[in-house]
Structures are given as C-alpha cells and as structure tokens.
Backbone:
C-alpha cells in the first residue's frame, strides 16, 4: 500500500500564449521569441565565420519546455521568471496560465 504522507510535489504551470497583435509589430514579436527560445548568431572574422548560441529562458530554466506551438510547461520554481518575461510583452500577447497539479496518463 502506498502512502502519500510526507510526499510533497511542486506543481507546474502551463502557459498558452498567442501573438496575434504582434503580427502588426514584427520587431516586438521577434524580440519576445528570441528571449523565450534563444537564438544563434554568426559573424565574420579573418579566420572564417564564427557562430554562437544565445540561450533563451527555456534553455536557462531547468525543467521548462515547449510542449506545443505557443504552449510552455514551467516548473513552479521558474514561474516568476516567466511571469516577468510575459509581463514585458503583455501589450502584444494574449496569455492564459493553468496550474497543473496532476498528470493523468
């Protein structure tokens, strides 16, 4: 028999967002996407082309992942970082956040 006494599990949050308004303001949409997913940039040097990856918030927060287009699963300990990012771009995004307390297979 399993007992749940003493077992504590942090919940996760599902962020669903849409950038409909951002289609008119392309620069803000691109900036948001880069901050969230990261990007790779290249530059020319005398020895050839160099490349470097700038990580996004999804790369930096362990346990967070994109689960579908415009859907991100975030562990509770990283939630405030995502709240901060989404609040910066609230003028171009519509956002819904759901707390996930149990996964059913």
Residues:
């Amino acid at each position: 028999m399993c007992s749940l006494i003493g077992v504590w599990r942090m919940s996760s949050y599902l962020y669903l967002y849409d950038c409909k308004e951002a289609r008119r303001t392309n620069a803000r949409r691109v900036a948001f996407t880069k901050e969230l997913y990261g990007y790779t940039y290249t530059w020319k040097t005398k020895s050839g082309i160099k490349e470097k990856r700038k990580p996004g918030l999804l790369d930096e927060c362990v346990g967070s992942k994109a689960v579908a287009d415009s859907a991100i699963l975030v562990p509770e300990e990283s939630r405030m970082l995502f709240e901060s990012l989404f609040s910066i771009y609230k003028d171009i995004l519509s956002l819904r956040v759901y707390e996930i307390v149990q996964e059913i297979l």
